[in-house]
Request: fold
Amino acid sequence: MILHIVKAKYKKKYMIWLRLNDGSEGIVDLKDELYGEMFEPLKNIKRFKSFRVDPELETLVWKNGADLAPEFLRDRMQVLNS
Reply:
């Protein structure tokens, strides 16, 4: 199954609640993942909170062009159910 982000909500700090198309949901903490040219600007919490789920890519994207693969997010997610 190809993973897709179905829904995402900002929780606090650098944490985002996610629901994936496989039915799993949980919290991913991206605090330690914000390095490199595309992700450094997201250390600004206002910019970080501006993510959305792109309808074509079906994953998290930010206005500066940063995005994260659903598989990457799933691997780092604290699963609430599956």
